[in-house]
Specification:
Blueprint lengths: L1 H10 L5 H6 L1 H5 L5 H13 L1 H18 L8 H18 L1
Helix pairs in contact: 4-5
Amino acid sequence: MRRLVALMMRLMGRRTCEDVVSVLQDYFEGRLDPKLAAIIERHFQGCPDCTAFARTYHEVIKLSGAMSCDEIPAEVHDRVRKAIRERSAEAR
């Protein structure tokens, strides 16, 4: 029954919340077909949960893109690799 409802919603041009979330990255990057983007926007108009999620998603992407990336010091890199190897060996 659930599959039938999902199919009907898609045929009517509506999307489920799961459908919307799965294409958010493409939506914000402008890579969606304009018709699909319009369907997503209509979904936002009727779904405050997806609207809030999309707003938060977009803000996190925007803020994380503004962060600077420093090189990991070689000593830290070596310690992390050693710890991973040791835990991996213990698990065996």
